[in-house]
Amino acid sequence: MLVLPVVLLGQGQLTLIAARSPDSQTIELDREYLDTITVQGREYQKYSIDHRTYFGPVDEEEAQRLEDQQQVFQRIFDNRLVFPPIPRLRRVLDCGHGSASWAVDVAEQNPDCEVIGVDIAPHMSPDDVPDNLWLQVDDLNRRFTFPANHFDLVHSRLLATGINRSRWPSYLRDIVRVLKSGGWVQMVEIYFNVQSDNGSITDEHALRRWSTQYMRALEDRKDLRIGSKLRTLMTEAGFVEVDTKMIPLPLSAWSTDQRMRDIGRYSCTNMQQLLRSLALFPLTQRLHMSPDTFNSLVDQAQQEAADPTLKAYFPL
Length: 316
What we know:
Strand order of the largest sheet: 1-8-7-4-5-6
Structural class: alpha/beta
Order of helices and strands: EEEHHEHEEEHEHHEHHE
Oligomer: single chain
Distance between the termini: 15 Å
Strand content: 15-25%
Number of helices: 8
């Protein structure tokens, strides 16, 4: 059975050196990161599209979807934000913060901790954040500029669509370098191939066709199967005590387990929005699918995702 990671906890063994404050790493934002383009009524960061870094929207609609997604994860993780056994957080790095919902929650619950969030797009960052949270703009496909032995925890969630496939080994080595001795990394990735272990989803279903097309649209740049490889890559990067777990992220309330059925019922709308939001640019602009064909595919997939008789889920 293929086991896909939901949370990977890797403990770094490093030598302590001096660190510098978040303020010393702040530079004036380059205008090129702020420019946007409009495609099929959605806003995208021009820099990310031009450099083939990230193909998801960065508008208010997507920011709200990410906020709702955080609530889905909180239900799945039983309201736990941090999994590693860290007695006291002093510095935390959130890679790919998106709408910064996780970073904000961690900063609010740990007021004595410095939290730094990094993302390629500043467009979805909230205007009002805790005083101990710094949001920075940078491309995680570049090498980290943070000092070594700086963070107690690095959080990395849903970056398969942003990190280039060739970057993953050095990305993990960068995380090892910036962690303090005994520090931890917590990672979450979705495998976007819709699964159904009871055979209710076939290749003829729109959900499976959505998966096939979406993964094909990004395969030249991104590795959407990275979740299945992270345990090996983390070990090779020097992490120890690596633990993995696969959790099904239900697309509807199909489960016979009351808790998972409630999660499926709550996440149904968010997962349906994800199908349209993430795939719009890749399918229409990279695979040259017509808007009518795209809308028809997503409409069918969303209807299937809402059907509790179909056991459909993303491995998380």
